[in-house]
């Protein structure tokens, strides 16, 4: 407990650095962009339109408010992939700085995941536009959306910490992870309803796919105006805490060796 409190105190001391790193990432992303921050709204909106035109005709299923269903899954999954892919390079990409001065190494991974969270908040502007144009009813349940986002952020941070330390020792992790995320995307009901899967596949997705938990919770609050099932909350929170614990443990255990490999 003492070590945990000391690390939390250290994180508090470096909060200004984390804030500056997040601002730098956001400014770099939109630098020399003609549309600037507007692109954070247009990008998911255009991607949603393309996916809607393709998959609604390909699968030919009837689903109420399909554009809203689609953009929720797409936006949350994009955040997770962006956050974790940025985290992969958070240590190796700052090798020169780490060799010159002492900085807690985890702040780089934390800043990457946090900057992706800011981008997610920008992207939710596109989500709101889709809700308005597709007639999604706004309800008090939407006030609980931050609970889902906190779970997703903690999960992504834990996975990001694990990937960041693994990439220091195994440079091929970035290629392996890109293939895994592609498979992960198709195993998550982003653009198709769960009913299209077999019973066995549905059970596997519910039990083993963290993104299903977060996306379904979000959809229940927004599209179906009801609280998520207790099972979804337990699985979602459990995945978030388990990945954060494992990711933090693996990162702290190996961080003293980073300087030998970066």
Question: Which properties best describe this structure?
Answer:
262 residues, mainly alpha, 11 helices, globular
Q: What does this 3D model show about the protein?
A:
This protein is an all-alpha fold and 262 residues long. It has 11 helices and no strands. The model has no long low-confidence stretch (mean pLDDT 86).
Question: In short, what is this structure?
Answer:
With 262 residues, this protein is mainly alpha-helical. Helices cover 74% and strands 0% of the residues.
- Beta strand %: under 5%
Which structural class do you get from the secondary structure elements?
A: mainly alpha
Poorly predicted sequence stretches spanning 5 or more consecutive residues = none
Mean pLDDT: 86
Total helices: the number is 11
Please specify the SSE layout and strand pairing.
Elements (H helix, E strand, L loop, with lengths): L1 H12 L1 H16 L8 H21 L6 H23 L6 H6 L5 H29 L10 H25 L3 H14 L12 H10 L1 H13 L7 H25 L8
Helix pairs in contact: 2-6, 3-4, 3-6, 4-6, 4-7, 4-8, 4-10, 6-7, 7-10, 7-11, 10-11
């Amino acid at each position: 407990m003492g070590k945990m409190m000391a690390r939390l105190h250290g994180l508090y001391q470096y909060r200004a650095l984390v804030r500056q790193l997040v601002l730098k990432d956001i400014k770099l992303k939109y630098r020399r962009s003609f549309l600037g921050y507007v692109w954070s709204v247009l990008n998911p909106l255009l991607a949603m339109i393309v996916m809607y035109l393709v998959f609604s005709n390909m699968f030919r299923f009837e689903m109420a408010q399909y554009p809203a269903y689609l953009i929720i899954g797409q936006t949350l999954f994009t955040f997770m992939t962006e956050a974790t892919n940025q985290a992969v390079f958070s240590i190796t990409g700052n090798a020169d700085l780490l060799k010159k001065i002492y900085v807690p190494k985890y702040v780089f991974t934390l800043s990457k995941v946090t900057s992706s969270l800011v981008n997610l908040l920008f992207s939710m502007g596109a989500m709101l536009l889709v809700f308005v144009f597709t007639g999604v009813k706004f309800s008090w349940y939407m006030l609980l959306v931050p609970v889902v986002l906190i779970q997703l952020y903690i999960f992504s941070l834990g996975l990001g910490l694990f990937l960041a330390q693994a990439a220091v020792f195994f440079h091929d992790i970035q290629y392996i992870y890109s293939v895994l995320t592609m498979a992960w995307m198709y195993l998550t009901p982003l653009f198709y309803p769960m009913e299209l899967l077999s019973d066995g596949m549905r059970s596997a997705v519910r039990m083993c796919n963290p993104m299903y938990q977060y996306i379904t919770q979000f959809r229940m609050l927004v599209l179906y105006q009801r609280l998520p099932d207790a099972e979804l909350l337990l699985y979602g929170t459990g995945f978030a805490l388990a990945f954060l614990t494992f990711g933090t443990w693996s990162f702290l255990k190996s961080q003293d060796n980073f300087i030998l490999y970066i």
